[in-house]
Design a protein that fits this description.
With 141 residues, this protein is mainly alpha-helical. It has six helices and two strands, in the order H-H-H-H-H-E-E-H. A hairpin with a 2-residue loop joins strand 1 and strand 2.
Length: 141
Protein backbone atom coordinates (compact mmCIF):
# COMPACT_ATOMS: atom_id res chain seq x y z
CA UNK A 1 0.00 0.00 0.00
CA UNK A 2 1.49 3.40 -0.97
CA UNK A 3 2.38 5.88 1.75
CA UNK A 4 0.00 8.90 1.73
CA UNK A 5 1.51 12.25 0.79
CA UNK A 6 0.10 13.91 3.93
CA UNK A 7 -0.63 12.78 7.46
CA UNK A 8 -4.17 13.09 8.78
CA UNK A 9 -3.09 16.16 10.79
CA UNK A 10 -1.52 17.78 7.73
CA UNK A 11 -4.54 17.03 5.57
CA UNK A 12 -6.87 18.55 8.18
CA UNK A 13 -4.70 21.68 8.40
CA UNK A 14 -4.48 21.99 4.61
CA UNK A 15 -8.23 21.55 4.34
CA UNK A 16 -8.64 24.50 6.71
CA UNK A 17 -6.55 26.66 4.35
CA UNK A 18 -8.78 26.17 1.31
CA UNK A 19 -11.14 29.05 2.07
CA UNK A 20 -8.15 31.36 2.44
CA UNK A 21 -6.80 30.05 -0.87
CA UNK A 22 -10.14 30.73 -2.59
CA UNK A 23 -10.27 34.23 -1.10
CA UNK A 24 -6.69 35.03 -2.21
CA UNK A 25 -7.26 33.46 -5.62
CA UNK A 26 -10.32 35.65 -6.14
CA UNK A 27 -8.14 38.74 -5.64
CA UNK A 28 -5.07 37.40 -7.52
CA UNK A 29 -3.01 37.48 -4.33
CA UNK A 30 -1.60 33.95 -4.27
CA UNK A 31 2.09 34.80 -3.94
CA UNK A 32 1.65 35.85 -0.30
CA UNK A 33 -0.72 32.94 0.32
CA UNK A 34 1.76 30.30 -0.87
CA UNK A 35 4.67 31.97 0.93
CA UNK A 36 2.81 32.03 4.24
CA UNK A 37 1.34 28.57 3.79
CA UNK A 38 4.72 26.98 3.06
CA UNK A 39 6.36 28.82 5.96
CA UNK A 40 3.76 27.54 8.42
CA UNK A 41 3.66 24.03 6.93
CA UNK A 42 7.42 23.49 7.05
CA UNK A 43 7.65 25.05 10.52
CA UNK A 44 5.04 22.63 11.83
CA UNK A 45 6.25 19.63 9.84
CA UNK A 46 9.93 20.01 8.90
CA UNK A 47 10.73 17.92 5.86
CA UNK A 48 14.10 16.84 7.26
CA UNK A 49 12.28 15.02 10.07
CA UNK A 50 10.41 12.97 7.45
CA UNK A 51 13.48 12.21 5.36
CA UNK A 52 15.98 11.61 8.14
CA UNK A 53 14.02 10.58 11.25
CA UNK A 54 17.01 8.72 12.71
CA UNK A 55 19.35 11.69 12.58
CA UNK A 56 19.59 13.48 15.87
CA UNK A 57 20.66 16.73 14.28
CA UNK A 58 18.40 19.60 15.31
CA UNK A 59 18.55 21.30 11.92
CA UNK A 60 19.73 20.74 8.35
CA UNK A 61 22.78 22.96 8.94
CA UNK A 62 24.94 19.97 9.77
CA UNK A 63 23.77 17.88 6.81
CA UNK A 64 26.13 16.73 4.09
CA UNK A 65 25.83 18.29 0.65
CA UNK A 66 24.11 15.14 -0.58
CA UNK A 67 21.58 15.26 2.27
CA UNK A 68 20.94 18.94 1.62
CA UNK A 69 20.25 18.20 -2.06
CA UNK A 70 17.87 15.37 -1.16
CA UNK A 71 16.13 17.70 1.30
CA UNK A 72 15.85 20.53 -1.25
CA UNK A 73 14.37 18.14 -3.82
CA UNK A 74 11.91 16.77 -1.25
CA UNK A 75 10.78 20.28 -0.26
CA UNK A 76 10.15 21.18 -3.91
CA UNK A 77 8.17 17.96 -4.39
CA UNK A 78 6.17 18.58 -1.20
CA UNK A 79 5.36 22.15 -2.30
CA UNK A 80 4.06 20.87 -5.64
CA UNK A 81 1.95 18.23 -3.90
CA UNK A 82 0.52 20.85 -1.54
CA UNK A 83 -0.31 23.19 -4.42
CA UNK A 84 -1.89 20.39 -6.46
CA UNK A 85 -3.93 19.18 -3.49
CA UNK A 86 -5.19 22.66 -2.53
CA UNK A 87 -6.05 23.56 -6.13
CA UNK A 88 -7.94 20.29 -6.64
CA UNK A 89 -9.78 20.50 -3.33
CA UNK A 90 -10.62 24.19 -3.69
CA UNK A 91 -13.15 23.47 -6.42
CA UNK A 92 -15.16 21.46 -3.87
CA UNK A 93 -15.34 24.27 -1.30
CA UNK A 94 -17.50 27.34 -1.13
CA UNK A 95 -15.66 30.41 0.12
CA UNK A 96 -16.87 31.19 3.64
CA UNK A 97 -14.52 34.10 4.33
CA UNK A 98 -16.93 36.85 3.32
CA UNK A 99 -16.75 39.54 5.99
CA UNK A 100 -13.88 37.91 7.91
CA UNK A 101 -11.00 39.87 9.37
CA UNK A 102 -7.68 39.21 7.56
CA UNK A 103 -4.65 38.33 9.69
CA UNK A 104 -0.92 38.27 9.05
CA UNK A 105 1.19 35.50 10.59
CA UNK A 106 3.77 37.17 12.80
CA UNK A 107 5.53 34.14 14.28
CA UNK A 108 5.32 30.38 14.79
CA UNK A 109 6.28 28.22 17.76
CA UNK A 110 5.27 24.65 18.62
CA UNK A 111 2.36 24.56 16.14
CA UNK A 112 1.03 27.85 17.58
CA UNK A 113 0.75 30.99 15.47
CA UNK A 114 0.86 34.59 16.61
CA UNK A 115 -1.48 36.58 14.39
CA UNK A 116 -1.76 40.28 13.79
CA UNK A 117 -4.91 41.92 12.46
CA UNK A 118 -4.26 43.57 9.12
CA UNK A 119 -5.20 47.21 9.06
CA UNK A 120 -7.55 48.30 6.35
CA UNK A 121 -5.79 50.37 3.74
CA UNK A 122 -7.47 53.63 2.86
CA UNK A 123 -6.59 56.19 0.26
CA UNK A 124 -6.77 59.90 0.87
CA UNK A 125 -7.19 62.58 -1.74
CA UNK A 126 -5.14 65.75 -1.40
CA UNK A 127 -8.34 67.64 -0.51
CA UNK A 128 -8.90 65.25 2.40
CA UNK A 129 -5.56 65.90 4.09
CA UNK A 130 -4.78 69.52 3.34
CA UNK A 131 -5.10 72.55 1.16
CA UNK A 132 -4.29 72.29 -2.53
CA UNK A 133 -3.76 76.01 -3.16
CA UNK A 134 -0.20 76.10 -1.79
CA UNK A 135 -1.16 77.83 1.46
CA UNK A 136 -0.75 76.08 4.76
CA UNK A 137 -3.77 75.81 7.02
CA UNK A 138 -4.18 78.87 9.21
CA UNK A 139 -2.19 81.29 7.00
CA UNK A 140 -3.49 83.84 4.60
CA UNK A 141 -2.15 84.05 1.12
Amino acid sequence: MPVPHFSAEQRCWLDNQIDIYNYCNEYDDLVMFWTSLFEVFFTCWPEHEVLFPDLHSPAPLSFTNEQKQVLDDAVVTRKHRIQDWICNESSRHTNTLEGCIPFTIVSMHDHTMVLQVEEELTEFNVEDVGSTDGNEAGTEG
